[in-house]
Automatic annotation (TrEMBL):
CDD domains: DEXHc_RecQ
Top-level lineage group: Bacteria
An MF annotation (GO) of this entry: 3'-5' DNA helicase activity
Organism for this UniProt entry: Pacificimonas flava
Record's GO cellular component terms: bacterial nucleoid; cytoplasm; replisome
Name recorded for this polypeptide: DNA helicase RecQ
NCBIfam families: recQ, recQ_fam
Amino acid sequence: MYISEPVQILNDVFGYKSFRPLQGEIVEAVARGEDRLAIMPTGAGKSLCYQVPALARPGTALVISPLVALMQDQVRALREAGVAAAALTGATAMDERRDIWNALEQGTLDLLYVAPERATMPDFQDRIGRADLALIAIDEAHCVSEWGHDFRPDYRQLRPLCDRFPGVPRIGLTATADAMTQADIAQQLGIDADKVVVAGFDRPNITYHVRAGDSRTRQLMDFLNGRRGRAGIVYAPTRAKVDAIAAQLQAAGLNALPYHAGLDAETRSANQAAFVAGDDMIMVATVAFGMGIDKPDVRFVAHMALPKSIEAYYQETGRAGRDGAPAEAVMWWGAADIARARSQLAEGESSEERRRIDEGKLNALAAYAASAACRRIALLTYFGEPAPAPCGNCDNCLEPPTQVDVSEDAVKLLSAVYRTGQRFGLGHIADVLGGVASERASKLGHDRLGVFGLTEGKTTRDWRPVQQQLVAEDALRVDPQYGGLTLGPAARAVLKGERTVSIVPPPPGRKRRRQQGAPALSDADDPLFGRLRALRKALAAEHGVPAYVIFHDATLAEVAARRPATEADLAGISGVGGAKLERYGAAFITAIADYEAQQ
């Protein structure tokens, strides 16, 4: 396929009438033969930034992608749209491999997807060098940077490949990169600094919730009970947690599966395929799952513990609502999460510079979790984007928390930690401060310290939010194995009164907090939407593709709202391209007519 006008390609092939902000600028530049590094939020249409120019320029686009699953999903969706696309992987059969090379040599292949490991092989480069290349696209480009959260050494070898084709435009794409990572990506890929385009990091369709994790499995069940029938991802910190949570969700009647590196490859592949194809599947996974999963209708992402950094958090939560429809991101955390992360940093073999940078990233994430301010402002500020007004669509905006100044208690807690030798857990420290006359305190001589009995009546539960805030601010550190408390770098400023400490007090007792209502797009809200989803599911099974490849939820919602009576009316809806209209249009028009006849 070769169509010269990008807007015509966008309309005729992909079914969209106009480009999104900055998307058109990037497409036009690459179609003209210019390089670009595109930093765009998930759901902003990064794939179209190279897919449209691939069809606008003669030749085949070489797309370098990190995961086989991502390649397969992209190829499947492109073929559904009538585009000649293929992926060359280790699992590609010999006859299919031969057909791909023949199509490449004959100039009938629009896009070829390969992994970076293959792209850097000399024999592959020799063979691709005899083809007519339209462009070279490097997806998930943050993997090229050692400062990125998913660094892959093979990505570092892509610059020579790009330089081998000086007249071929190169485009790097990622959703997640702070200023330092952006500069490193551009340098590693040989893209000039003035060719970097940052489309913004705001995902206004995602509602962010961050909660103290006092009983995380129960809290997760409370959250999911109001979202049955929705597709989502639950991230857990360990394989054992993944297996346990998946089993609990299954026992509760939820359609859930586990995913982690401890499962055999066949099981992982089957579970991933079930998640991609299902409308209501919940994948419980470690962070090994997600990158390259091109599923637009994920309605929520839940974190059962703090991720590695704000970049990782943004990337993982960004897997929700890729279709632009309402979605949610919820995270439960505690001081133990930070303690575990600090321990891992200390035990790692990274350079001093890398350790310092990672420590800063962890501190930024802890501050984000403990903050009472707008979540969206905090995220955008971190990535260097001008902060807007409060979003009105995060937990702190929807239910503004009351902050309490606990600086005086913070000084007492830090003092007690110091005077008892910086090796005891919160329970013992609380007993000392509360003046509990125990045999242990007497034996250690802690009942004779000046801090003994300073705060009678306060329990360990009362002190926990103060400890958590001090840990988040790195004024206090927790031994992840034994729970002993030690002073952190920020303790001196707190003790000297140069830094105030505020907390959001927890709700009284164990009363369960009512969750925000789930976003729209449900069968109950609109029966026609439910009927169209059922039709989509049946067509997907018939054609052997995931449901979203036929139409995204957002497209179905618009179809249900507008109720087109003819295929010409259906063609006017965003996401309905020519090939899909021809293949599926009649079935949807008939379903709408039948529904209206029954009303």
